Amino acid sequence: GENVEQHPSTLSVQEGDSAVIKCTYSDSASNYFPWYKQELGKRPQLIIDIRSNVGEKKDQRIAVTLNKTAKHFSLHITETQPEDSAVYFCAATGNQFYFGTGTSLTVIP
Amino acid sequence: NAGVTQTPKFQVLKTGQSMTLQCAQDMNHEYMSWYRQDPGMGLRLIHYSVGAGITDQGEVPNGYNVSRSTTEDFPLRLLSAAPSQTSVYFCASSNRNSPLHFGNGTRLTVT
Prior knowledge:
The structure holds two protein chains of two kinds.
Chain A: E1 5-7, E2 10-14, E3 19-24, E4 32-38, E5 45-51, E6 56-59, E7 62-67, E8 72-77, E9 86-93, E10 97-99, E11 103-108
Chain B: E1 4-7, E2 10-13, E3 19-25, E4 31-37, E5 43-51, E6 54-57, E7 64-66, E8 76-78, E9 87-94, E10 101-102, E11 106-110
Parallel strand pairs in B: 2-11
Antiparallel strand pairs in B: 1-3, 3-8, 4-5, 4-9, 5-6, 7-8, 9-10, 9-11
């Protein structure tokens, strides 16, 4: 099956700085890559996704890039704010959703 | 639309007891799944279903059963609870290559 690795496991940034979270996947058949944000005690919620026929996608301060050849994709958050503090999960999807182990992001005011 | 509804929100079981976690979705999604979330281990797939009458095992299926008699419902049964099953359980649904929609989770403690 698919193996998704996510780094780093924890990340602290100063408010206003950028944050980057990276994921790699193993199955070249995976074709859909969503990112989820999970606040403490709540359910994961989709923040952005990208399909395998696209290299980059942006939504305001959030962007995702995909390199199919290298089998890695990344989440970029610019101008971070304290409310961005949460755990972020990447996923790779073919027939099932396979999740990374999460990145705990702390934005320091 | 209510989305994905999970019940109960909290449950405490004694070792050896059985119970069913309920999950229902009203979005006519084909795909439904159960995950458990443990600290530092992300979301691990227990069982999933690609349609009514079809179920399959995920990464960590031992000790759990599922059935999918209707499109809407996907209950998860714990056959004989063990302390290792203490976790937060999420049900989720989607259509193919579309975002997963999660329920609010069930926090289960087995003593």
